[in-house]
Inverse folding.
């Protein structure tokens, strides 16, 4: 099982790579770290061209089974459409894991026919208890261990999972995932509650909507100058009700070490 | 000239109302302040029902010429579609002014056939030099004074102006303005530059795009943990170039006392 680490958004440190190498060795995986993960150009792990080239390189490499996004941040939307246009033929047998900003890539590559999974990334190793997140991602990639999966995934309901702001940034663009009939899992971090309310307005007022929705963790919500006056779950349920989207409860995903794996599409246990 | 003040988003103080009353009297306007501008329910100037009712009331009042949104904040998106569905017949002769979160209403009401203008709001009186913003809005509403207008508006190019995050929150929803063939003016405040880059990605990757774009002020940009590495104007020009949207330079709008008035549609001087 060969896993290639690239950074479609922001770079990671040598320390992150060293710790993830250790976990990968323990899990019996061969981890190939593309040097682009340490590139730096302004906000990004190298220019758009550099990040796109690294992604194409690992997706064209016949020895690679999984492509693992090193971290989020921001920037994969700037190269996702070009990647799909120039997708190497060998990409189609590979699988891709990431979350947060990597959601742009997950959506684009899932629509292009790749298997993708919303799940922990190498940079999560720096979180408190972060090795458990890394081990969970590896358990799914290396052994297909179902204990790594979000526990309520169902073969009857094809699932998609996204960071809410990332998903809303795809609405109406060519990267937009096909939500029709899907169960959508959302999570959010470090956004004001009014901004999440606004994002839920946008999501639930599209012509095409998910059939059902589950809510992961909305963490590190900043205090606003005025309290929002509604619990986050009540907010999500209200938008679901107004749009006729079935509320299916909570989901075990989020920007934290507990973040479970959500392969896109129907899961056949 | 009778101007009705309502608060479709967040409330304003008695002090704001007192100062704006003074400016309105000097400008020769009769200012009618709906008591709803002081209502408070969580984040909002009263519940959705209360804010919607106040808007409908002033739009149904035959003595009212202009409806003036008291301030932004967040929340007018939650009532804009219902307002259009239940629009009083007398609304069609009236005009509406606001900006920031009020952009949701401007878009919805402009599509419904009302004349609307992106311009200063009563709460701007608390800014440094804010009375000039109030006087500018009043000069346009009371006298149609063209000195109040953004100086580069052209009869050849119908204009629309929005806060960037507010505009992006309307993409794909029924509130979405018709940007086809329009000159779009955008401004932003207190957003990370990466978030504005992401918003510009979303805006410029829609099937329907503006013909041209001008950039107002992007102010109070927070420092990120890593510098973005590109000037804000270069960022906007790059997205315009990639999408085939004509770049028309800067615009004199923003979250500040200098904010000029932009009536939606073609201006006939």
């Amino acid at each position: 099982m060969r896993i290639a680490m690239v950074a479609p958004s922001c770079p990671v440190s040598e320390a992150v790579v060293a710790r993830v190498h250790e976990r990968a060795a323990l899990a019996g995986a061969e981890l190939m770290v593309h040097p682009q993960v340490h590139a730096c150009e302004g906000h990004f792990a190298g220019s758009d061209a550099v990040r796109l080239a690294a992604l194409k390189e690992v997706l064209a490499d016949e020895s690679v089974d999984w492509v693992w996004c090193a971290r989020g941040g921001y920037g994969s939307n700037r190269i996702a459409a070009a990647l799909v246009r120039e997708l190497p033929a060998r990409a189609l047998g590979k699988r891709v894991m990431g979350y947060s900003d990597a959601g742009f890539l997950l959506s684009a590559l899932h629509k292009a026919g790749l298997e993708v999974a919303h799940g922990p990334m190498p940079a999560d190793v720096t979180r408190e208890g972060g090795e458990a997140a890394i081990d969970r991602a590896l358990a799914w990639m290396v052994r297909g261990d179902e204990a790594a999966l979000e526990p309520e995934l169902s073969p009857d309901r094809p699932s998609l999972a996204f960071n809410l702001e990332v998903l809303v940034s795809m609405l109406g663009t060519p990267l937009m995932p096909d939500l029709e009939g899907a169960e959508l899992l959302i999570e959010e971090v470090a956004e004001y509650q009014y901004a999440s309310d606004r994002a839920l307005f946008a999501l639930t007022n599209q012509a095409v909507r998910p059939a059902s929705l589950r809510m992961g963790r909305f963490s590190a919500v900043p205090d606003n100058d005025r309290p929002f006056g509604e619990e986050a779950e009540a907010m999500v349920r209200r938008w679901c009700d107004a749009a006729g989207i079935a509320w299916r409860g909570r989901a075990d995903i989020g920007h934290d070490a507990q973040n479970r794996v959500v392969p896109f599409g129907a899961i056949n246990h």
In short: Chain B has two domains: 2-148, 159-251. The interface with chain A takes residues 10, 41-44, 73-75, 77-78, 81, 165, 168-175, 193-195, 197-199, 201-202, 205-207, 224, 226-230 of chain B (CB under 8 Å).
